[in-house]
């Protein structure tokens, strides 16, 4: 009898252990709700369970949440999940076997070039002589060594460089001597970049149902552009031996563009600089991670100066991060637009300005530097029509950055 009871107790204990859900707890550090935050799960038990299942779902209680696997080869490194929080909520995310639901894609990255045409030497209306690409059809590609004949308005790269977007906002940068970041304001939450510029080289400057290019960058930094501070001005990455750009991730919750500036000539030296740009679902921010082959003092980024705009600086003295931002009627469509840069306080050298830009001068550590940049527009889902709204957004993002919850 005793042996039977002992056996039953052992079976009961084993059943309880086996039925205990595998998961992890993620806590919202803010006393306010947070909608659609991309979080990274690295809990070993979850990763082991995911590797052992043919298919699985991530659950927030009874609600399934979208996820994206981050893997190297066959090894799962982490899982990204898109979750929302009530104020100060501790949320248990569990993994269960089963076929996951299909969720809308919320990030995208791309590069498209013309193929099937020819390079022609032309004289532009302004008198400049250069190569242009004539004819051909657009083709989406994974990576690109930039043709030495390419320059601004060569018509061989769709919207003139790589593009990346979330469900909130889109970006591009010019893959030439300008190397400046521009913004696509979005009035919809679907992925729009695959259609941008197909109906005309620069048709995206005109307002459409999805939105438009909403910044005039010119010779300035736009927002978040890589620069070097020298001779009292921010100098963009203009002179290089060669340029290589690659879509290193095009995921449902996270996408990345990696660019190598080989032989970048800056004031006082020359280096190979690698940039990795990352955007997450539900986010207005782009993460910029820079690695230089040689020491470069006074790397910089910043925000274009526009008339009748206000400057905001973070007031929170705690935490590792701070922000610098502008707000006002500064979009091409004459709407309100907030532009911002987040930087590590430990890497700040100087907050300054030149004729064209508000400048954040930063000190790399071990030849590496990380900052975030972004924009929020009056006609996108943020309805960014007041400086108070922008401050609320920035303060929330700052708190999440300081809590380590923004990837």
From TrEMBL:
Query: Which PROSITE patterns does the protein's record reference?
Result: PROKAR_LIPOPROTEIN (PS51257)
This protein's source sits in the domain of life called Bacteria
Under InterPro entries, the record lists:
DUF4861
What keywords does the record list, in alphabetical order? Signal
- One Pfam family from the UniProt entry? DUF4861
Signal peptide start-end? 1-19
* The protein's name in its UniProt record: Uncharacterized protein DUF4861
The species this protein belongs to is Mangrovibacterium marinum
């Amino acid at each position: 009898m005793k042996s039977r009871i002992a056996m039953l107790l052992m079976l009961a204990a084993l059943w309880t252990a086996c039925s205990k859900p595998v998961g992890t707890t993620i806590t919202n550090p803010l006393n306010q709700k947070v909608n659609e935050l991309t979080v990274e799960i690295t809990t070993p038990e979850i990763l082991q369970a995911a590797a052992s299942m043919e298919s699985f779902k991530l659950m927030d209680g009874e609600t399934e949440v979208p996820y994206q696997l981050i893997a190297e080869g066959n090894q799962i490194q982490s899982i990204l999940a898109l979750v929302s929080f009530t104020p100060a909520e501790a949320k248990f995310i569990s993994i269960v076997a089963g076929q996951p639901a299909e969720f809308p894609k919320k990030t995208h990255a791309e590069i498209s070039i013309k193929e099937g045409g020819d390079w022609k030497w032309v004289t532009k209306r302004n008198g400049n002589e250069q190569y242009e690409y004539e004819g051909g059809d657009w083709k989406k590609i994974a990576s690109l060594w930039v043709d030495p004949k390419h320059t601004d308005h060569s018509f061989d790269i769709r919207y003139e460089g790589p593009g990346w977007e979330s469900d909130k906002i889109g970006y591009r940068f010019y893959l030439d001597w300008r190397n400046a970041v521009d913004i696509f304001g979005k009035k919809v939450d679907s992925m729009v970049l695959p259609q941008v510029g197909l109906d005309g080289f620069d048709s995206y400057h005109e307002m459409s149902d999805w939105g438009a290019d909403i910044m005039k960058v010119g010779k300035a930094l736009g927002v978040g552009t890589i620069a070097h501070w020298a001779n009292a001005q921010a100098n963009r990455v203009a002179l290089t031996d060669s340029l290589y750009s690659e879509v290193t991730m095009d995921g449902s919750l996270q996408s990345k563009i990696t660019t190598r500036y080989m032989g970048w000539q800056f004031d006082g030296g020359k280096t190979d600089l690698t940039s990795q740009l990352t955007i997450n679902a539900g986010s207005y921010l782009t993460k910029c991670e820079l690695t230089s082959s040689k020491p470069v003092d006074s790397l910089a980024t910043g925000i274009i100066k526009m008339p009748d705009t206000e400057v905001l600086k973070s007031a929170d003295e705690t935490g590792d991060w701070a922000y610098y931002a502008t707000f006002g009627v500064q979009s091409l469509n004459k709407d309100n637009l907030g532009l911002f840069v987040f930087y590590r306080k430990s890497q700040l050298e100087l907050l300054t300005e030149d004729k064209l830009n508000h400048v954040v001068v930063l000190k790399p550590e071990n030849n590496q530097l990380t900052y975030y940049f972004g924009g929020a527009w009056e006609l996108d889902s943020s309805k960014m029509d007041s400086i108070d709204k922008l401050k609320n957004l920035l303060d929330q993002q700052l708190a999440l950055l300081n809590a380590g919850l923004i990837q």
